[in-house]
């Protein structure tokens, strides 16, 4: 691959990198940038919402996260939004979705990537990013919808739990359930903060 640099003709990738390094100076090491995520940087909440119309009956579990408006730190890897439910057999998964906004309510157009978490849980990778001193994923909501498939299950609650993990280094894989949400990082133990709420039920 060749790169064109002004006044220098065509450069190889290696030459371009060397010139770039000269121009920007030495890079700050990863360690110097690593710092803990403040405990009050964000909060989470969750609730069930009932919907009924001529097409059917649903219970939607929704978790929300919300960063402090003055907390601006979006960095790789993607943050993790996890929602886990425990529902009686009369209810089946009818979809999942997520949306995110900056603190002024502008919709986030960047990656919110669904992971494979099964029928009663949902995990999205949220590409936390900052621009113009604004965190583009300041707040958001994450929902799993359960539709009634059969009569019955009276008095049996639907339960759910919501988790959000903000992080600053490495890549991750996960395990999720009502009992917990665990991320394993390729980089070991990077600065990260997970918050969860108690199980919420109908
Ligand atoms: Ca906020
Ligand atoms: Ca992150």
Structure description:
This protein has 202 residues and is mainly beta. The protein has two domains: 1-33, no CATH class; 34-201, Immunoglobulin-like, CATH 2.60.40. 8% of the residues lie in helices and 51% in strands. The chain is built from two helices and 16 strands. Strand 3 and strand 4 (56-67) form a beta hairpin. It starts with a strand and ends with a strand. The structure holds calcium ion (CA) (2 copies). Residues 75, 77-79, 128, 166-168 line the site of one calcium ion.
Question: How would you briefly describe this protein structure?
Answer:
The chain is mainly beta. Helices cover about 10% and strands about 50% of the residues.
List the helices and strands and how they pair.
Elements: E1 2-5, E2 9-12, H1 13-24, H2 30-33, E3 42-53, E4 56-67, E5 79-86, E6 91-101, E7 112-115, E8 121-126, E9 130-131, E10 134-135, E11 139-148, E12 159-167, E13 172-177, E14 180-185, E15 192-196, E16 200-201
Bound molecules: calcium ion (2 copies).
Which percent bin holds the helix content? under 10%
Straight-line distance between termini: 58 Å
CATH architecture of the largest domain: Sandwich
**Overall 3D geometry?**
globular
Looking at the structure, the CATH topology of the largest domain is Immunoglobulin-like
CATH class (first level) name of the largest domain: Mainly Beta
Q: What's the total helix number? A: 2
Bound molecules: calcium ion
**Strand percent estimate:** over 45%
Which structural class should the secondary elements be placed in?
mainly beta
The count of domains is: 2
**Overall average pLDDT:** 88
- The radius of gyration is 21 Å
Order of helices and strands: EEHHEEEEEEEEEEEEEE
């Amino acid at each position: 691959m060749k790169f064109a640099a002004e006044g220098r003709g065509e450069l190889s990738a290696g030459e371009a990198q060397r010139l770039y390094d000269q121009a920007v100076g030495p890079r700050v090491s990863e360690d110097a940038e690593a710092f803990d995520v403040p405990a009050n940087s964000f909060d989470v909440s969750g609730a069930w919402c009932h919907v009924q119309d001529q097409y059917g009956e649903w219970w939607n579990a929704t978790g929300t996260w919300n960063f402090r408006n003055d907390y601006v730190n979006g960095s790789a890897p993607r943050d993790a939004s996890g929602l886990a439910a425990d529902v009686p057999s009369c209810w089946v998964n009818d979809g999942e979705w997520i949306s995110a906004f900056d603190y002024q309510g502008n919709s986030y157009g960047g990656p919110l990537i669904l992971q494979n978490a099964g029928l009663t849980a949902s995990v999205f990778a949220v590409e936390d990013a900052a621009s113009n001193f604004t965190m583009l994923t300041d707040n958001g909501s994450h929902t799993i919808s359960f539709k009634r498939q059969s009569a019955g299950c009276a008095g049996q609650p639907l339960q759910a739990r919501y988790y959000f993990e903000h992080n600053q280094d490495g890549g991750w894989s996960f395990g999720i359930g009502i009992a917990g949400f665990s991320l394993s990082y390729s980089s070991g133990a990077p600065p990260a903060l997970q918050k969860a709420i108690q199980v919420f039920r109908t």
